[in-house]
Structure formats: C-alpha cells, structure tokens
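Researcher: I'm preparing a figure for a lab meeting and need a structural model of a single chain. I don't have an experimental structure, so a prediction will have to do for now. The sequence is pasted below. Please return the structure as tokens so I can convert it later.
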Amino acid sequence: MNTLNKYLNSFECYKPLPAETVNLLVSKAKKGDRAAVSEIIYSHQRFIIFTAKKFGFIHNNVSDDALMDIISAGNVGLLEAINRYDNTKDSNFLTCAEYGIRNALGKNAHETRTGTYLPFNKAKKLSSIKKLFANYNLESTDENAISYIAEITSSSVDEIKEILSWDSQVTSIDEFTDNTKNPIATFSCNFFQSIDDEIEQSFMEETLHKALNELSNRQKTIITLHFGINCEKKSLTEIGEILQLSKQRVAQIEKDIFKTLRESEYATTLLDFVA
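Model: Understood. Here is the structure written out token by token.
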C-alpha cells in the first residue's frame, strides 16, 4: 500500500461532524486544545479533497506525491480557517474553511510552480456559461450558439469564446492518475457536496430575490416561468399564451432582461440560477 492510500485509510473512520460540534471544537482549538485541532483536521480531510476537486487546476506532476502535497497545503488552509473563524459572525465553518483551503492551494501551486489554479472568478464564470449552453441545448462549438449566448448575456462573441477557452486549461484532480487505481477519484465527498449545495442555494435565493426586484412585473413573470424559479418551468410558447404575447415577443423580452441587468450587481447571480 502506497503513502497516499495509507494516509486516506488513516482517517477513513472519521465522519463529517454536525455544525454545533465543529463550533465547539473550534472554540476548544482556539484555546490550545490539540486534540480538538486534530479532530477538526481529520474530520475535514474529505472537505479538502472536495474543495480541490471543486476548483479545477492544471498540474505538471501526476504522482501520488503531488496529491499528498495538495492535501498538505489544504491542511494549512484549514488551520488558518480555524484561527480566523468566528461563529458569531460567520454563518458556517465550511464557508470559512473553503476560503482558507482554496487560498492555500493556490499559494502552494504558485510557490512550488507545480501547477496553476483557474482563479475562482474565472471558474465561476466558466461554469455559468457552460450551464447556459446546456440549458438551451446548444453546442459550445457552434458559432450561432455562441452568438446567441453572447447576446442574452450582453457579451461580445470574443468574450464568450475566451471564457470557453478556459475549459481547456482545467484538469480535474480525478485525472491525475488512472481512475482504477486512484483512491481520490472514488473517495466519498457526498456529505460535503450536499452541504455545499445548501449554502450556495441559500445565498443564491437571497440575492436572486434582489435581482428580480430590479425587473418589471412582466419581465419577472417571464424569467420566473421560463426557468422554473419556485414553480414549474414553462416554454416560451406557454408563457406567450399566459401573457397573450407571441413566442417571438417573449424571446425578445427575455433578451432585453439580460441587457437590463448588464450593469446590475446581481446579474451574475441571476445568470447562475437560470443556468
């Protein structure tokens, strides 16, 4: 058994902890309780792996040693999160931990020159654009499709192409080694995926409400119905029948909505949700 497998097996028995337990352990850790620090670290090893997988990166070294290096850097970020976390101000330790781990991973990649992470803002924008293509059943290699996405997002064709080009720069951690032999590829992070989804959904719903408030009642109705925001999705034809408008008119209004939101601070959130 190699070093990576031994390390993963060493914390296999540690399960994700309830938020209340984590808060208690963090309080003890801040007072110098080493046992509390150890328990936090071991119970969050899956989260380090989850975060490394969530934020894609390029890496020149595909060995298990490189993966161990990533985990070690993530532990540094986790320790920083423990020191920084304040449960009276921060809503969830995982949010603070993700920030610390992501920064530590990026810093490690930069300092060791063994890899380059796609910056968070780029990764988020790339994800949103790819989801838009999928939502409209469009191919990202189709020039007409690129033009359409550019139009509804009030971007230029060149901007969309540049964003899509970032996809070729990202290599998942799952691709580092042969998936049949790579323990990282099959290591369970389902718990943290569900918690991460809940945090993101809560934030998105809050800011989505603010974004929709910038629209007229008719615009809000079209977006709400077309993308199924707290309701069943409707086609442009069905929305036209409800509002007594043609399908073409509804499509034009929808395009105008994205133009209206171009300068809005909530535009990205709305795009993320409908994507």
